[in-house]
Request: fold
Amino acid sequence: MTLLLSASQITTYRDCQRKWALRSLARIVPPQAIWGALGDKVDAQLQRYLTTGEAFDYSATAERSGYIAASGLQYLPQPKHPGLEVQKRFVIPSPHGITARGQEAAFGYQGYQDLWLPLGGLPNTPNPIVPATGDFKTLKDFKWAKTEDELRVDVQAMLYATWAVFSTRSKVVDLAWLYLRTDPRQAYKSQCTRTRVDADHVATQFLEIDATGAEMVAHRAACTGDPIEYALTLTPNPLACDSYGGCPYRGQQCHLSPALMAESLASIDVPRRLPVLNANNPDPVNPKEALVNAPSSASSTLARLKAGRAAALGQTPPTAPAPPPPPPPPAQLPAWATAPIDPRFPPPAPVGINPPEVNLPPAPPVGAAAPATASPRRTRATKAEMEARRAAAAAVVAAAPAIEAPASEAPVADMPTEFEDGSQPGNLADALEDLAEAIFHVSKCVRSSAA
Reply:
């Protein structure tokens, strides 16, 4: 075998053929993410603990990997368990194209199991003698952890189970995927997804994986020129552009137009890729929404993509279906239907926000003085006016009826009957006249002093 495929390559190919070609054929490898380096340190801590029983490293140089690894102790077997191996490498030859016994396989599959227990040994297992295989995963949120149903169709898990079945001849295999949370804002915690699969299910899944591997090998053989140009001829998958934090080739080597995205959605094998896409995306994809029809204006590009794929696989390009007949011409429409403005409903007359000019007051002549807005200053009363006011007040008092005291009331003995100036106390007109005169003299003095 000269070509060995990994589970990550097959998963990437199923997600997006163009992404796989840019990485595996053109060998454009993106840099490792920060969380990937932390995951390697956690794996090293777990492997050292399982093989030697050495305690975890909680120092600052370990970058929290010791605390993260310690959170999964409850799901791990005892250190140095009989038959336990870590990073167990396996190779599975492909049965594709083999017609005689002893014939060498053209390609195969390889992988490294984080945990391999041929004699069993997982804690809290109903039958501890069943072979078990497992993998360690680090993530920031448990929403990305696979469920049991997703694990039963996962490419990596099925390759591990295939090798376990053929190497131990067991009819069942236990799968244990340990997920360790690395978010520093939350408590260090882990959870484990376990499931038991039988040999028939594993064989069925492996045949589907092998069919995908045969397609990948055919693409490798067909790529004889520039690998980047060949990768751009493969069908992209817009549904996978946001998986795993976003495709590193989007906007760099891969530029998808809206028309090409619609064509790709119509041509890709959506039902086969949906289980993988839904496992990696927080919002599951609906198959009915994903299967859209390509627009007629992009039919030439779609035909080119299909022809390139058929040529890479050594197949006859499918003939393009006959175009649909043109729609019948529309019936004669009435004149009002084609007029710019419907005569049946004329537009209303425009209404201005100001009154008409005829209703406005005439404009003032040029150079006219503006009307005075300030109130005029109050003038002073003359002496004759003051005398008239006093006479009017005296007349009002004289015309008023006299008020006589009741007979029952006795006069006050000590009340004076005459003032010093000879006036009588009951003469109200004289009193008012004196008061007005006093006020006049006081105001005159105040004005003279102010001047």
Notes: The domain at 3-284+292-312 is CATH 3.90.320 (Lambda Exonuclease; Chain A). The first strand starts at residue 3 and ends at 5.
